[in-house]
Structures are given as C-alpha cells and as structure tokens.
Amino acid sequence: GDGGGSEGSGGNGGGGVVLLEPEDEGERASARAARVVALACVRGCVRHGRPQALLPYGEQLLRASLATAASINDPDLSNAGRACAVLLAQLPLLEAGLLVPFLALLKDLSASPSWHLRGCLLPPLKYLIYLGQFAPPSLQPPPQEAIQALLLQLLVDPQLEVREAAMPVVAGYVRLYGPHARRRLLAWADNILKKRKNGGAPLAQRHGGVLGLAALVALAPYDVPSWLPEVLERLARHAQQPQPIKAAVSRVFADFKRTHQDNWAASRKRLTPEQLEMLADAEQPPHWYA
C-alpha cells in the first residue's frame, strides 16, 4: 500500500535517521544542535567560495543533510537540510572522484523505511543526473546506469508521493540522455504493464509504469514527434484502471490537450482518427451509465 514509513524506527540500514535522532531527549537536542552547525558550515563554505573544504567529508555531510531533510519534527531544519543536500550535489564531484560514491550513497538511502527520506533523494539527484553526462567512459561503474536504476526504483516506490515526485525527474533524465534513454524507458514501462495480464504486478509498480509513459509524453509538450502517438495509445489502455492509475492517465491527456491547444490544427494531423477518438475518451472517460 501507500502507507507512510516510520521516521525513527529501524536499525542503521539505509536511512541513517536513527543515528541523528537519539532516543534520549538530551542527546537528541545535542544532535540537532550539531546538525545546525554542520549545515551552517556547508552553506558558509559554498557561499565564500571554498567548496574544496567540504570534499573530504562529502559523503558524510550528504548523508547527514538528507537525514535532516527527512525530519518531520522541525520544518525549518528540514528545509535547511534539503538545501544543503542540493549544494553538496553541486560540488566539483567529478574532479574529486565523488560522483560514483554519491550515487552509491543515494542507492543505499533509497532502501530506507522512511518515505520522507526516499523522497528527499530526488532534488540532489537532479544535479547528479546533469553531471553524469560529463563522466568519462572509464568511470566505473558507469554513472548513467546507476542513475537510471535509482530513478526507476523511485518511480515504483511504495509511497505515492515519491512516485509522483520522481516522474518529472525521470522526464528530465530522458531529455538529457536522448533517444536511447527514451527507448529503454518505454521498454521498461511495457514490461511492467504487461505483467498485469499474468496475475499482475503490484499496484505501485503498475502506477510507476504509467508514470514512465507520462514522463515520455512530457518530453513533447508542444509538438507530436513520430514516436509519441504510440505512447499515447499505450497510456489510453489504462484509462479505466484503479486509482491512482486512472487519475494519472486522465491528467496526462488533459495536460497534453492543454499544451497542444495553440497548435492543435497541426498537431492533430499527426494522429489517426482512431487515435483522436482515443484521446477524447481518455480525457473524458464515459459515464458508467453511457
């Protein structure tokens, strides 16, 4: 289901949240004060042009910043942790050899029982996606593979909020990495959605497959490239699936019609009459009594 994860439970695996939230109230206050100081140091080093001072402690600071960002007890501290995680992702990671370790750390944290922590991985991941374009071919393991695997994992996360937040990040990844990434995402989504015919993938995974198709549609907000009608057809097949799949499909088609409205006379020529009818049905599903 889409139940929320426990914020302060579990061992050290994945999250690191427990390490920064001791059970003793006095120790907890000291830990929070230490986090405030660490976050202030990150901001100060970046603001004063001394990011190199952070590099030796980059992994530890990123873990602490993300654990802070996932806290639900202090919104201001959580926002500061999220901002620092993004700042750390903008350090000269390639030169320092930290891109692969940072990706490995995010992969580790993606197994956390805290869905808040899993969701907090996405803002810094955006910057690592961009940086991965410039990784030398000799870098092992290839960061592009690690990035794609992590994105697809978050796209089928058990928590609805994480899946929905991952969708635009996946679209950005495909936009940067080109047709090869687009074809791989389409094949991945097809594989998940076909499982429904054989007794089925879990609802969260099927919703993630639909969100993968939605990410492809988001790549072409103002035109209709040759590969898009096929993606729209595949999406339409799931218009009557249970929520949240049904709502996701309706939203995609409504957004598609809205963003293509100004040039609809030209855009509709790229679609067959059957596809145009399908588009209308998916945007406004028939009533049960029709």
Largest sheet: none
- How would you state the average pLDDT, rounded? 87
**What's the count of strands?**
0
Counting DSSP H or I runs of 4 or more residues, the number of helices is: 16
The rounded distance between the terminal residues' Cα atoms is 32 Å
Shape, please? elongated
Task: Provide the fold topology.
Elements: H1 17-20, H2 25-47, H3 58-69, H4 75-89, H5 93-96, H6 99-109, H7 115-120, H8 122-132, H9 143-155, H10 160-177, H11 179-194, H12 203-217, H13 228-236, H14 245-259, H15 264-267, H16 273-283
Helix pairs in contact: 2-3, 2-4, 3-4, 3-6, 4-8, 6-8, 6-9, 8-10, 9-10, 10-11, 10-12, 11-12, 12-13, 12-14, 13-16
Describe this structure in words.
The chain has 16 helices and no strands. It has helices spanning about 15-20, 25-45, 60-70, 75-90, 95, 100-110, 115-120, 120-130, 145-155, 160-175, 180-195, 205-215, 230-235, 245-260, 265, 275-285. The longest helix has 23 residues, at about 25-45. The chain is elongated, with a radius of gyration of 21 Å.
